[in-house]
Every structure is written in C-alpha cells, then in structure tokens.
Design goal:
The protein has 286 residues and is an alpha+beta fold. Helix content is 28%, strand content 32%.
C-alpha cells in the first residue's frame, strides 16, 4: 500500500483545505474565514499555504502556514507561522511527514502560537522552543496627568499613519482591515508606540488583551494613560499582555500562569521578538 502523498497547498487548493478544516478541526470559523486567514499580503512571495496529505485524491490531513516578512531590530526577517494542523485518525502516523515538509523549508523563523499539548511536544522534538506562557495583568484607573505631561492616545486612521514610525505605520496598514483588532498610538511628540488590542474577559470582568506593543519601554512608561483611555472610552477594567513581551513587570500588576506554551524556532531571534502580528492570532478571530 502506497503512502498518502504530500502536496503544497496552492491558493486554488485553499477552499478545499478550509472545507476540510471546518469539518474536522473546528466549526467556529467558516470556510471563507479560514481561507481569508491565508490570503493576507504580508510582504512576502509565499511559497505555499502549507502542505496537504492526500490519499486516493482525498484530503486526509494538512498543516497550514501563514508567511510574512517584516522588520525586527531594523532588519527584514522572513517568518512561517504554523496553524491549523489536522490529520484524520487513520492517517495520524503521517503527521510528522507534514511537519517536516513545512519546517525543512530554509530561510524562515518558525512559530506556532496556538498549539495543542500534542502539537507543542511534537514541534519541540523538531527543535522548537517553548516561550514563557505567563501573562501580566494590571488594573485600569483614571489618570488625570496625561494632558499635563503631553501624552496622547491617537486612534484616528490618518493621524496614526502620521505619528508612527515607518515600520510601525506599515504594521498598522498590514492589519488595519482586520475587524476584530483595535489600534492606537500612545506617546509624546516624535515618540509613539503602536498598540494592537482586542477585548477579553477574565473571571467575568471585561478588559483589554494587548497583542502587540511596538516599543515595550514606551508602552510601560505610559501604561497609566493607556489604562485611563481604555477605562473611560471602552469601560475596560484591566490591561493584559504576555509577560514575554515586557522587559519588566509593572507595579501594580500580577502575573498569571498555567497557559499553554507557544513555541518557536529561530537561530537569531529571542521569544520577545516573535510577534503575535502576522500570525493566526490576528488572521483569525481567536
């Protein structure tokens, strides 16, 4: 009996692959939303959308890939974000073939930001490293000193593009059309941080989960002004962010643990350099 074939997922295969994902992985996302997640133009000529496993012409498994090229430490870097790895039970023994087909592609930093426990262990066998899973949370309070110190929170589309650095402005434009993301710039004249956030809940309380802060130092320096904005404009009682993205824990603030580890593989980048942007965490409403 011949082994199932492994094929790259071409754009013309996406609908078929996403029908498979909707039927076998999760019905939370429609076939159309699955497909859109792979179709963003994120600065790179993508080689594929991942790889398919076919048996007698039928999809029996697949592993998705979202590719991007964006700047880290003033240098353009190429990324492959692994997502939507699903193989039917009777072909589960072929899963590693799929993973190796994807991760043996040269020239990429790799990440998986939503792995199951099994996927995480499998990728660590392929020399992926777990990231710090802790999250830092602090309360949002009214902060009346923002205007006095000249700190501004900017949410207008045109103004964002004007105050952000060219790299941050590009990241904003790359994600501005994703409806479940919120964007703002916070800082002072000539020194702004791009913040991407979405609403979340913790023990029934509404807050803001910060997916990305382009400058962690500026973000922490002005966290009180940010919290005041989130509280007064959106009624959100806390700010939450992955601890790996911060240089230090702010006070007051607590650290929550017990989350599943994200994983990555890179010879040159640290875990704090692996952005949640340009991944399934923003391409899908997760």
């Amino acid at each position: 009996m011949s082994l199932p074939s492994i094929e790259p997922i071409r754009d013309e295969d996406l609908n078929e692959f996403c029908v498979f994902l909707n039927a076998n992985l999760s019905q939370r996302h429609t076939t159309e939303n699955w497909a859109k997640a792979f179709m963003h133009d994120w600065g790179i000529q993508k080689p594929n959308n991942g790889f398919l496993l076919r048996d007698d012409g039928r999809i029996v498994g697949g592993i998705g890939a979202i590719y991007s090229r964006h700047t880290v430490h003033d240098k353009p870097e190429s990324f492959c974000n692994i997502t939507s790895w699903c193989v039917l039970d009777e072909h589960r023994s072929q899963s590693m073939r799929l993973a190796m087909a994807l991760t043996e592609q040269p020239g990429f930093h790799f990440s998986d930001l939503t792995p199951t426990e099994v996927v995480s262990r499998t990728l660590q066998f392929l020399k992926f490293r777990p990231m710090n899973e802790a999250q830092t949370v602090w309360p949002n309070l009214i902060w009346p000193f923002s205007a006095i110190s000249g700190v501004r929170v900017i949410t207008d589309h045109g103004a964002l593009c004007q105050v952000l650095s060219p790299v941050d402005a590009q990241a904003y434009r790359d994600h501005a059309d994703i409806p479940w993301l919120n964007h703002l710039a916070i800082g002072q004249a000539g020194n702004f941080c791009h913040v991407v956030w979405k609403k979340c809940r913790l023990k029934g309380v509404s807050g803001a989960f910060v997916l990305s802060a382009s400058d962690a130092g500026i973000f922490l320096k002005h966290r009180n002004s940010l919290g005041s904005h989130l509280l007064s404009r959106h009624g959100l009682l806390f700010t939450r962010i992955e601890s790996r993205l911060l240089p230090a824990r702010p006070k007051p603030g607590i650290e929550l643990t017990g989350y599943r580890n994200k994983v990555y593989r890179s010879d040159t980048l640290a875990e704090c350099d692996i952005s949640n942007l340009y991944t399934e965490l923003v391409a899908l409403d997760i």
